[in-house]
Amino acid sequence: MLAALASEDRALLRPLLETRTFKPHERMFDGGDTADRIYFPLNCVVSLVIDFEDGTSYQCGMVGCEGVLGLGSAMSGRPVYARHMVQVEGEAAVLPAQAFLAAYARSPSLRKTCSVYRDQFTAQLLQSVACNTGHSAEARFARWLLMLGDRLTTAEIPMTQEFVAQMLGISRPTVTLLAGSFQDAGLIRHRRGVITLLDPQAMREIACPCYEAIRRVYEE
């Protein structure tokens, strides 16, 4: 996202940015918080999670280096709707929301880039809703792994089966079976706490069409 900004916009924001390291499961926002800061993930990946009253939680969105967090709440003054939880540890560039809004007001090109990103992220959310109701656990697991891979600079994804099950809304035994079948097919290597993507191209053949649809919208 930062690389996509016009050079004058990067120059405008650079003095305001502070780089911070985030650990797995660390919360950037809880649902109901009003964003007082803006995050640009650099190499961490953040899940937007909906928590239900019965204690279950489901991922409704994923943001990595392609995106920005806290933008909608900062602009509207309304609380964020979902919990923003670090899925894969790493760094993010952070700045106060008011400082970002001042730059946003000054720069038409920054406003345009943010508007385009918000449209793309809305498309991701809508496609994910349709995917969760219409596609198999196998196809959704493959899509999820590919989306993570796109946002990381390494093929190794630190991830427990319990966390995968929670994010996809499937049982842990189902994740175990899927991970085993993917490993037998040579798509991944799975050891405790780490999934390594071995053949992303073959994984695309298994993933539901939602992966290509979301990727195409972002590239456009």
Relevant terms:
220 residues, 4-stranded antiparallel beta sheet, single chain, alpha+beta
Low confidence ranges: none
In one word, what is the shape?
globular
Strand order of the largest sheet: 2-6-4-5
Radius of gyration: 18 Å
Model description:
This protein is α+β, with helices and mostly antiparallel strands. Helices cover 46% and strands 23% of the residues. It is built from 9 helices and 10 strands. It has a 4-stranded antiparallel sheet with strand order 2-6-4-5. It has a 3-stranded antiparallel sheet with strand order 1-7-3. Strand 9 and strand 10 (194-197) form a beta hairpin. It is globular and about 55 Å long.
Summarize the structure.
The chain has helices spanning 7-13, 71-76, 97-106, 108-134, 137-150, 161-168, 172-184, 200-206, 210-219, and strands at 18-22, 27-29, 37-41, 45-51, 57-63, 83-88, 90-96, 156-158, 188-191, 194-197.
Chart the SSEs and their pairings:
Layout: H1 7-13, E1 18-22, E2 27-29, E3 37-41, E4 45-51, E5 57-63, H2 71-76, E6 83-88, E7 90-96, H3 97-106, H4 108-134, H5 137-150, E8 156-158, H6 161-168, H7 172-184, E9 188-191, E10 194-197, H8 200-206, H9 210-219
Antiparallel strand pairs: 1-7, 2-6, 3-7, 4-5, 4-6, 8-10, 9-10
